[in-house]
Amino acid sequence: MKARNFAKSRLRRTPDYYYYRGSRLTPVVMLATTLLLGFFSMGFGQLSEMIQTWNKVSEVEAYTKPVVVQPKNLEMTEKQQIMSYIVEVFGDDADDAITIINKCENSEFNPKATNWNRNGTWDTGIFQVNQIHGYSMEEMQDWKQNIDVAKKIFDKAGKKWTPWSCAHVVGQKPFYMN
User: In what order do the strands lie in the sheet with 129-130?
Assistant: First the structure.
């Protein structure tokens, strides 16, 4: 058997295998063939529709307009509305806010819930806001006002839950332990 001259041949050798070296046009020809076969397989009608779609919507527009699907004729319960408003008002701190309410302040999310304290004051509403903050019981039993006031108290305390007696459920010391 005659030895091959690999320098002149298109057949190349590596230590593990042989391969065929094509011309410089081989990648271009392969790409054109692939595109042509693709056009025939999906039909030219679909191709023109795809090109028109590309021209209509840019990628940026496609990702800046999120689609929100909401079921029609489905009303939220009062508890769902309250929790949704807490998320809206408290933002990143909403998890802790809901934990505070759920674990010890007002697990039923009852806007009219009232607790009478030993010192003669009352706590009322979703966040059980105490009367020392200067609001009437009627104001604090409106759940939106109660949540707004709770957010003011939370912000005034340096974005901490220390004004609530059960701050320990979110890993903070309540006011009476400081």
Answer: 114-116, 122-124, 129-130
